[in-house]
Write a structure and sequence with these properties.
With 301 residues, this protein is an alpha/beta fold. It is built from 9 helices and 12 strands.
Length: 301
């Protein structure tokens, strides 16, 4: 009896694996459908409502993509400028400027910078750039610029505080506690203020303040401070007497406190001594005007 053999027939094992894969796919679909049905029963939406929600999400994504493309092309900037100009036509433009917090500085310096924005549409005013310009002014420590609709720019100034007078070779300059220069000052106006001198003294103003704080009773008596040799201070008192302090922050503060104690007991300030030298931490040298001449005359008789 003849037997027909098909050459392309699949092996039995391969057919079994294919049948098993189909079974798994069918079970997975059934499971997924069951989960979707369960989720539909839990959510308070109908299938039609869910379709609408998905449609809205798709449209929102499309709008976002269009906005990104427009921004890249510069269309949003153009649109913003047009809106700003429209706001200006509607009365939202700079017509008034109010400056607050100015006590010592020239207020016109502030107006000179802000009034350049006059008649500009309010949305086009660059508040950050205005603040940067104001902080460049010597007296301005900080500034806040804000819009007050419909037509006013408000500027709040924080001024630097005058602290001492820096003595330069050609002029006197008012400085703040950090040594920042404020403006030139006349000798008459500088009278009674602490005067600081010496190469490099300007960057050591805060250091000098800390030194004087070591002897609070003497601080009001100090009229001038000279930074000598880029290493130490000479203090001049209102009596005209000079105190030479040693080098080093701790050493100079210790010497100044010792001098304050000696002055409290012996009334050194206002006496006959013209200069006190405390550069040697172990002793104090005092110079009395005319004493050397007297000694010389006594020795010659």
């Amino acid at each position: 009896m003849a037997q027909t053999i098909r050459r392309n027939a699949k092996p039995v094992r391969r057919q079994a694996r294919a049948q098993a894969s189909k079974t798994k796919v069918r079970k997975a679909r059934q499971k997924t459908n069951s989960l979707v049905d369960a989720l539909m029963r839990i959510l308070p939406f109908t299938e039609e409502q869910l379709h609408k929600i998905f449609l809205v999400l798709i449209l929102a994504a499309a709008v976002a993509i269009a906005w990104i493309v427009a921004s890249t092309a510069g269309l949003t900037v153009l649109a913003g400028q047009q809106l700003a100009l429209a706001a200006g036509d509607a009365g939202y433009e700079v017509n008034r400027v109010e400056v607050r917090g100015v006590e010592r500085m020239n207020e016109l310096k502030v107006y000179e910078r802000v009034l350049g924005e006059k008649d500009r549409a309010m949305p086009l005013v660059d508040l950050h750039a205005l603040r940067s310009q104001l902080i460049e002014l010597p007296w301005v420590k900080d500034a806040r610029v804000s819009r007050q609709l419909p037509d006013k720019i408000v500027v709040d100034i924080v001024e630097r505080q005058p602290h001492a007078v820096l003595k330069k070779p050609d002029r006197l300059v008012l400085i703040d506690p950090q040594g920042h220069e404020l403006e030139p000052i006349s000798r008459a106006a500088a009278k009674g203020m602490l005067q600081i001198s010496g190469p490099g003294a300007q960057v050591r103003v805060e250091e000098l303040s800390a030194l004087l704080d070591a002897a609070p009773a003497l601080r009001p008596q100090v009229s001038a401070a000279e930074w000598v040799g880029n290493r130490r201070w000479n203090l001049t008192f209102k009596t005209g007497q000079v105190l030479a302090l040693p080098q080093g922050e701790e050493e100079s503060a210790g010497a100044l406190m010792s001098f304050a104690r000696l002055d409290g007991v012996n009334r050194l300030l206002g006496g006959k001594v013209a200069a006190f030298d405390m550069r040697n931490p172990e002793r104090i040298y005092m110079r009395v005007p005319g004493r050397a001449q007297e000694a010389s005359n006594t020795g010659g008789t």
